[in-house]
Amino acid sequence: MKKTTILSFILLLSLPAHAQVPGYLGKRLSMSANVSSFLFFDYLQADAMRLSYKTEVGLNYSLSRKVDFGFHFYTAKQSYLMKPWSFQSGYNSYSPSQEFLDCNLKIFEFHLRFFAKNFVAPVGIYHQLGIGWVNYSVADENVLRFQSYDSYSYSTETIIMKGPYPEYSGMKLSYHLGKITPIGRLFFINSAIGINYFQSGDIARYEMHSLTQSSYLLAVCNKNLRRQNFAEIKLGFGIFIL
Amino acid sequence: MKQIKALIIFLFTGILLYAQAPVDFNNYQPLQCAGTIPEDFLTLSQEKFRQDVKSETKSSGHHVDQSKQEFLLKTNFIIDELLLSGKVLFGDTVTAYINRIAARVLANEPELRSKLRFYCLKSAEPNAFSTNQGIIFVTLGLIAQLENEAQLAFVLSHEIVHYEKRHAINAYTENESIFGNRSYKYNSYEDKIRMASDYSKENELEADKLGFERLINTGYNCEESIGALFVLQFSELPFEDFEFDVSMLEKPFMKIPADLVLDSVRPIDLEGDMEDDTYSSHPNLATRRKALEKLIERSAETGTARFIENESAFQTIRKIARFETVRMQLQTRDYCGAFYNSFVLLIQDSGSHYLKVCAGKAMYALAKYKNHDAYSDIGEYYGQIEGSQQRVNFLFQKLTAPQLNLIALRYLYDLSVTDPSYSILAMRDDLAGEAVRMNDARLEDMQKSFKTYQEAKKILADTVKIITPVETSQVIPVTDSVQSGYVSKYDKLRQEKKKKEITQVIETKKADESKFYMLAFADVLDDAEVKRMFEEMEIISDKITAEKKEEDERTKKMSSYEYRKIKENEKKMKKKEILYLGIDTVVFVDPFYYMVDDRKGLQLINSENQLLEFGDQIISNATLAGLDYALLNPKAFEAGDVDKYNDMATINDWIGERFEHEDFEMIPLETDRVLPLTQKYNTSHFCYTGVFTTKQRRDNIGGVLLFSVLCYPLLPLGIIYACTPQHHTYYYTLVYDVATGKEELNHTAHLRSKSKNGFINSLMYDTFLQMRKRGKAQKLKQ
Predict the structure, then answer these.
(1) What is the dihedral angle through the alpha carbons of B96, B101, B104, B105, rounded to the nearest 10 degrees?
(2) What is the mean pLDDT of residues B431-449?
(3) pLDDT tier for residue A65 given thresholds of 50, 70 and 90
(4) Residue B229: how many other CB atoms lie within 10 Å
(5) Exposure string (b/e) for B17-55, b if CB count within 10 Å is 16 or more?
(6) Which residues pair with B632 in a beta bridge?
(7) How far, CA to CA in Å, does A102 sit from each of A52, A74, B357?
C-alpha cells in the first residue's frame, strides 16, 4: 500500500505545476459510478460462458490539459467455481460438495488517464494506466464442505469450514482505453475496455507442499479472480463537480 | 394635422436630399449597406426550402420529385451563403438605382415585380444572374462597364425572363435526366455535355428574345440590347483605353528608362465574338447579336431613350461602381489591373485621394510580391494583355525587385505626406524595411548615387557645351581655320578627343540608368522624415544582420547535438508562448459548421441547425472563459443589425485578402477599412472559428474482418468496426490581429469522433482560455 501511495505522489510531482488546466468548462473534479462486465470462459464448468460483474465509484481530477488523476474503488461479489483439487505431489484430493464459492472483492485503484491527441482532459478518448490493491475473501456466510480423499491410505474425511475466512490481498495493474462523452454541461458517460493483471499476492502460500484448507480457498479465489477479471468492458455515468 | 404634414414633408425632403447628396469622389468611402436587413437575409435556408417545396407542390398539384427537391435545397443554401457572405449590397445607392430601373422595366407587371428582389453584388467580374427564388444579382463589375441605362434595363429584362421561365430549375432537371437517365445510356459523355449546353443556349436565346420584347414597352432604346452585348464582349478590358503615362511614377531626378516603356501595344481583338460555343452554356455573342438584330428589324417600335431616369445619375452610379471595382481588383490580386484602372479614373478625378491610395496599394503589393519572388503568382504575362494596359504590365514585369521597391516606396512616401494614416505609414515602413534589408537601398548609397548623377550631368552639360561648336562647325564658326574651311591636324585631334569624352559620358549615363531607382528620393534626401525612415530601418536591418552573424558563429562552435537541443528548446518555448495570447476582447466573425456524409453528401439542414447551436456555444464558452466578446453571426442577425452586417462584410473582405498572402507577411490592403472596427469593438483581435465533420466508410474493412475471424475472440470488435462509420471532426480557430495583419493563433483539432457538442465545448473552452491567459511574455510586457 505504501508503495502505491509513494508511486502516485512521484507521478503527481512529475507533472508540470504551471500547466494550464482548463478542465471541462472550468470543472476539474469529477465523480463517476461505473459497472464493469465481461464474458469469460469457465472451462472448469462444462465449457460454460459466464459474465463477470463489478461496480465502481471514483473521483477524478484534471492535473493538466492532457492528464487526469483518479482514485477508484471497485466492489464485487463474484461466485467462483469450485472443483476437486488434488495436490500435485501428494495423494490427497479435496472434493467440494457445493459448486460455487461466493467471494467478496474490493479493489482500491489509483490511475492516470492520458488523453488522446486533441482531446482536453477530462473528456474524450483516454488511455488509463492504473495501479491498485486487491482485497478478496470468501463470504463469511459460506459453510463449506469438502470430502478429503487420501489415495495412499484410501481414507476419506469430511471437512467442514465456517467463516470468518481469511482475507487475501495482492497488487493489480490495469490498462484501459476509454472515452468520456459529456452530456450537457454537468454530466458525462464513461465507456472503456480494459485488461487487468493481478499479481500473485498471497499465492505463495499454496505453493507449499501441504495444502491447507485456507490455501485451498486462496487457490480457488486467486485463479478465478484472474480469469473473471482479466478483461472488462466498463460503462458508467458521472458528474463534473468542481 | 398641419404639424404632422409639415413633419412628413420635412422628413421626406430630408430623405430626398440625402438620396441625392453628391458623392465626394475625392474622399470616396466604399459602399455599405443601409436601412434594415431584407427578409431574404434573415430567413433560415431550411425554412426557405420548405416554403419552396410547398409552393412547388401547390403549383404543380403533385409531390415534388427528388431531383427538384435537391435543386431547391442546394440553391437555397448556396444563395444564402452568398447573401450572408457580406458580398451582397442592400439599401445602398447602386442597389437603389438598379431597383429603380427594374421598376421601370416592370412598370406594367406589378405582380411579377412583387416577386422579384434586385441586389448588387460586390464583384469585379462583369455578370448578372437570377435565381429560382426571384433574386436577381447584378455585379458592380458589370455596372462599371455599361454605357447607359437602356443597357442595364436590357440586362435586367433578360434576367427577369430567366426567372419567369424557370430556366434554372428546368436546366437542372434537364441535366439530371441527361446525365442520369437510362435512355441516354449509350450517349458519350461529350454528347451529353453538348445536349445540356444546347438546352442552356436555347434558354439564353429565349431570355434575349423575351427580354427584348419586354424592353419595347419600356421606352428604352432596344438597339442598346446589342450595345449591352458589346459591353459584355469587351468587359474584361479596363474601363477606358488611355495611353499609360509613365511620368505618373517619375520624380524630378528619376526618369523611367526607355527600355522599360513598351513602344507599341497589342491591339484589342475586335473579332472575339465568334468563339466556339459547342460546350458552352451561353451562345457566342455573334449569334446572340444576330438574333437581336433580326428582332430589331422586325420590330416597328424600338424606343429611343438611352436614359429615362437620369443620365447624370447613371454616370454617378457607374463611377461609384468603377471606384468599387478598383478596390475589388485589389482584393482579388489583380494589381496591374487596379493600378491601370486607377490611372484611367485619375485622368478625370485627378484629386481623388481614394484612387491615389488604390494605386499606392497596388504598387505596394506588386513590390512585395516581387521582393519575395512570388510575382508570377499575381502578374499576368504582359504579352497576353490587349490595349494600353499592356504598358503597365510590361513595366511592372520588367522592373527588378529593387527598382520596383524604391519606386513604390517613393509613391507611398508622397502619399504619407498628405495622408499619414496608419495603413499608409505601415505599408511605407514595410517597404522601406525591405528596401534596406533585401535590396540594399541605404540612404548613404542613395546620396552617393545622387552625387554621381549630378557630376555626370555636369560633365555632360560641359561636354555638350564644348563639343557642340565642333560638331556644328559649319553653322557656328569657332576658329579662323574652320571659317576658312580648313581643319588643322590639332583641330581634328581635339575633335576626336571630345567625341571620345562624350561617348564615355553617354556610356556612363547608360550604365547608371540601371540604377535610376536610386534617385527616387533624390529630391527629398534632406527631408527629416526620409532620413528618419531610412535610418530607423538601417538600424533594424543592422541589428538583424548582427544577430544572424552572432547566431551563425555560435552554431559553428556547437556540436550538432547541442545545436539540435537548443533548437528543440526554442521550439518548445515558442509553442508554450503561443498557447497564451493574453487577449481580453475578441470579435467572433461568421462562425462555420459543415457536416458531410460520405454517402449522402453535404448535410445542409443539419449543418444549419448545428451552426445555430454553435453560435450559442461560442457565447457561453467565451463568457465562461472570461473573454469579452462580440459575435457577428449572420445566421443570427435581426432586421436592425445592418451595422453588424457591414462590419462582418468589411472583416470578411479583409480576411479574404489576408488568405491570399500566405507565403510571406504583408499588410492586407483592406487594413484601413478594418481599423475603425478596432475602435468600435475595442479590440484588434478577430476570430474565425468553425467545425467541419465527415462521416465515411472505414478503411480496410475486409482485412480487419479477416483478422478478427482468425483471432475469433476479437470478432465482436471486428464486426463493430465493419458496421460503424468513421467520424472525423475538425475544430479550427484562427485569430488575427487586424492592425498588424498577423495571425496570432491557428489551431485545428482533429478528433476521430462524432462532433458531439460536449467535445466541441471542451475544445472551445480550452482555446478561449488559451486566448485569454497571459504567458510569460505578456506578463513581462505588463
Answers:
(1) -130
(2) 88
(3) confident
(4) 18
(5) eeeeeeeebeebebbbbbeebbebbbebbbebbeebbee
(6) B589
(7) 13, 17, 88
Which residue of chain B comes nearest to A64, CA vs CA? Answer: B766
Residue B482 pLDDT more than 50?
no
Mind telling me how many Å the CA of B166 is from chain A's nearest CA? 46
How many other CB atoms are found less than 10 A from the CB of residue B455? 11
Which helix or strand (DSSP H or E) is residue A217 part of? helix A213-229
pLDDT at B618 > cutoff 90: yes
Question: pLDDT (tens digit, 9 = 90+) per residue, A183-204?
Answer: 988 999 999 999 999 886 665 5
Neighbouring-strand partners of residue B342: none
Is the CB of residue B751 less than 8 Å away from at least one CB of chain A?
yes
Q: How confident is the model at residue A8 (pLDDT cuts 50, 70, 90)?
A: low
pLDDT reported for residue A68: 92
CB contact under 8 A, A120 and B621: no
User: In DSSP terms, which residues pair with A178 in a beta bridge?
Assistant: A126, A192
Q: Check if B150 contacts A (Cβ < 8 Å).
A: no
Q: State the cell numbers at B469.
A: 561648336
Residues counted in chain B:
782
Name the DSSP letter for residue B246. G
B761 contacts A182? CB cut-off 8 A: yes
Taking residues B133-146, what's their average pLDDT? 94
**Chain A residues close to B732, C-beta within 8 Å:** none
All cell numbers assigned to B213? 420584347
A81: CB partners within 8 A, 6+ apart:
A42, A44, A45, A99, A100, A101, A224
Handedness of CA B604, B609, B615, B620 (dihedral sign): negative
- What pLDDT score was predicted for residue B13? 41
What letter represents residue B218's amino acid? T
C-beta atoms surrounding B745 within 10 Å: 18
Whether the Cβ atoms of residue B730 and residue B753 lie closer than 8 Å to each other? no
Q: How far apart are CA B228 and CA B145, in angstroms?
A: 9
Name chain A contacts of B753, Cβ cutoff 8 Å.
124-125, 179
Query: Which residue type occupies B154?
Result: F
Cell triple for B707: 483478422
What is the C-alpha separation between B367 and B407, in angstroms, rounded? 9
Tracing cell 482531446 back to the chain, one arrives at A119
Q: Please give the interface size between A and B, counted as residue pairs whose CB atoms are below 8 Å apart.
A: 56
Taking a C-beta distance cutoff of 8 angstroms, is the pair B308, B220 a contact?
yes
Report the DSSP beta bridge partners of residue B586.
B629
pLDDT (0 to 100) of residue A202: 63
- Residues of chain A neighbouring B759 (CB-CB closer than 8 A): 119, 123-124, 181-182
Cell of B176: 439530371
* Residue B507: its H or E element: helix B489-513
Residue A25 to residue B624, Cβ atoms within 8 A: yes
Extract long-range pairs of B396-403: CB within 8 Å, 24+ residues apart.
B396/B335, B396/B336, B396/B339, B396/B366, B398/B259, B398/B260, B399/B260, B399/B370, B400/B370, B401/B367, B401/B370, B401/B371, B401/B438, B401/B439, B402/B435, B402/B439, B402/B440, B402/B441, B402/B517, B403/B516, B403/B517
CA B344/CA B240 separation, integer angstroms: 7
What's the pTM?
Answer: 0.82
First and final C-alpha spacing in chain A: 28
As to burial, measured by CB atoms within 10 angstroms (0-12 exposed, 13-18 middle, 19+ buried), residue B215 is buried
State CA B62 to chain mean position distance. Answer: 45
Q: Which three cell numbers stand for residue B668?
A: 492586407
What is the distance between the alpha carbons of residues A112 and A58, in angstroms, rounded to a whole number? 13
Closest CA to A225 of A61, A123, A104, A124: A104
